[in-house]
Design a protein that fits this description.
single chain; 155 residues; alpha+beta; 20% helix; globular
């Protein structure tokens, strides 16, 4: 785990050039199309043996708390469900309360295991996973966001 202030060109290419089957990324961008700035990302890496996807989120500090993480999580989960993914797994730093709250808002059956280094989260979704932690209407992200760019699939 590390705080990420910026990404190298190679790291951005790795996030944007994905195969859409086992590696998926969505970006939140702002600014005009010809000069967009990435302000958030959500990605998953699917394990073919478990059909669970490990997730990772990054949201620029000035964009945190505005619903961008929730919007990215919603879109990522919609895509995963459409591809038959069984659920998400994540390792969250114990002091990252915002990310832990975001995880609790995801629809599906959530389990957590905490150790001194991380909170290990598993969220199972689908018809066979009881919805123990449904998204409440008040936590459903808005359909419009305070940035001008779309949330788009990485290519």
């Amino acid at each position: 785990f590390r705080r990420v202030r910026s990404l190298s060109y190679a790291e951005l290419q790795n996030l944007c050039n994905v195969n859409h089957e086992t590696e998926v990324a969505f970006l939140g961008v702002t600014g005009p199309r010809e000069n967009e700035e990435v302000v958030g990302s959500a990605c998953y890496f699917l394990s073919p043996t478990t059909n669970l996807a490990e997730t990772a989120f990054m949201v620029a500090p000035e964009w945190q708390g505005l619903g961008l993480g929730s919007a990215l999580q919603t879109r990522l989960q919609e895509y995963a469900v459409s591809r038959g993914v069984c659920g998400f797994v994540a390792e969250i730093l114990p002091q990252n309360q915002r990310m832990q709250r975001l995880a609790t808002r995801a629809p599906g059956r959530m389990t957590t295991v905490r150790d001194q280094d991380a909170v290990h989260v598993t969220i199972l979704f689908g018809d066979d996973a009881p919805d123990d932690h449904p998204a409440r209407p008040s936590s459903t992200p808005p359909t419009t966001f305070p940035f001008s760019g779309p949330i788009a699939a990485g290519r």
